[in-house]
Amino acid sequence: MDTDFCHSFPAARGMQAGRPCYVAMCPMRLIPKIFVFDEEEVPAELRAQRTLNRTRIPEIVEYLVNNPTGYTISAITASIDGKVTFQPSADTGPGSNLGVLSVPMDVRILINDGQHRRAAIEQAIAESPELSYDNIPVLFFIDEGLTHSQQMFADLNKHAVRPSDSISTLYDHRDAISELARSMIKRVEIFSKLTEMEKSSISNRSTKLFTLSAIKNSTKALLLKGKGDGVDEEEKDLAAAYWNEVTLHVADWQLALDKKVATSELREQYVHAHGVMLQAMGQIGADLLVKPRNQWAGILKGLKDIDWARANPDWEGRAMHHGRISKARSSVVRTGNYIKHKLGLPLTPSEQAYEEGETI
């Protein structure tokens, strides 16, 4: 009988919310075979998991395949629809919470959290069979019915907090664009002293003026970089030179750097203290950097003559909508268009389309 055959895992036994649970290290090659995720055959109201977002899977597969000796993958949480046995280790005694978990092959093991990891592991092993010998931690619960499994899924995802783009940029040492942003912190004085490194928004009382995520996105636009593109030292130097030149011609930034004005006051009163301006300057710089340095440096001197005050009605419909700063793509482009006009720079056809209301 099938019940005579089991999957056996070295495991640790524990209790959570009054229910037994087990943490086991599961070989990757078993993940596609023993974990059920039957989204096509079972309607949503009868499932314990959400429908797969298949656009997420290739990114995880690429990460696993490209980093065979350096990837990190979090645990899968699953429910076992049937009886299991736990045999304490002989070395630690009958009451030990370390031992072997045996799961009959005829029971269903449903994923509560980790269905995208499961699908990615299956594809990654097909591309790199050596991954099949690695292990992934699995947290097993004993299934108490569909309602409880659905509640587990809701609870797990309700309390999951996505890290901010700034802190992801700070910690991501594989991504060249994140490294580019961190290098700007070292090479541009105002960034080094006035950047919020962990959050992607700045509170009213913060003493910072920029976020690391805004610097990343603006410098990415400046150098016309896409996902996966590399960045060499010469490009980093050029980007730093550009941002240092911009800083020279925004007097209020210099005052903030010298602690002669509060950054909170600048955010309250000026457009240049918000990410929409930094992003716009990144896009403008992409056009400028094709020119010799003495030319684009000379053009940037015109920044001194721009009225950056939020009270300036020219910013409405550009950096602001109904008096509030806007981060929308259209706001970035139309803010850049206004700055270009003040600097005497022509608009590209796509930028002109925003002015004529043809692009939203």
How would you explain this protein's 3D organization?
42% of the residues lie in helices and 17% in strands. Residues 41-48 have low confidence and may be disordered. The strands form 3 sheets. An 8-stranded mixed beta sheet has the order 3-7-4-8-2-1-6-5. With 360 residues, it is an alpha/beta fold. 30% of the residues are buried. The chain has helices at 31-34, 57-66, 115-127, 146-158, 165-171, 176-187, 189-194, 212-222, 233-248, 251-257, 263-269, 275-288, 293-300, 329-343, 349-355, and strands spanning 6-16, 19-27, 35-36, 76-81, 85-88, 98-104, 108-113, 135-142, 195-196, 210-211, 320-321, 324-325. It contains 15 helices and 12 strands. The protein folds into 2 domains: 2-158, no CATH class; 165-355, no CATH class. The termini are far apart. The radius of gyration is 27 Å and the shape is elongated. This is DNA sulfur modification protein DndB. InterPro entries: DGQHR-contain_dom, DNA_S_mod_DndB.
Domains counted in the coordinates: how many?
2
Largest sheet: 8 strands, mixed
Q: Supply the helix-strand structural class.
A: alpha/beta
- Main sheet: strand order: 3-7-4-8-2-1-6-5
Number of strands: 12
Measure the end-to-end span. 64 Å
User: Beta-strand percentage?
Assistant: 15-25%
Mean pLDDT: 88
- Please give the share of residues in helix: 40-55%
Topology order in helix (H) and strand (E) letters: EEHEHEEEEHEHHHHEEHHHHHHEEHH
Tell me, briefly, the overall form.
Answer: elongated
Low-confidence parts lasting 5 or more residues at pLDDT below 50? 41-48
Number of helices: 15
Spatial extent as radius of gyration: 27 Å
